[in-house]
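Possible regression after last week's pipeline update?

I re-ran a chain I had predicted before the update to compare outputs. Posting the input and the new output here so someone can diff against the archived version. Not blocking, just want to make sure nothing changed silently.
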Amino acid sequence: MKKKFTTTLDGELIKAIKIKAIEQNKSVATLLEELIKEYLAK
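New output (post-update):
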């Protein structure tokens, strides 16, 4: 079950992750979820 999670990030970081998500044809939430899972698997 997915739950909403809110945080504060640097504005330039938000802009960069939005651009990456668009380039990969994904939502920001999906991209962040994938990155967090990858980080936690290390």
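Follow-up from reviewer: compared with the archived run. Residues 11-41 form one domain. Marking as no regression found.
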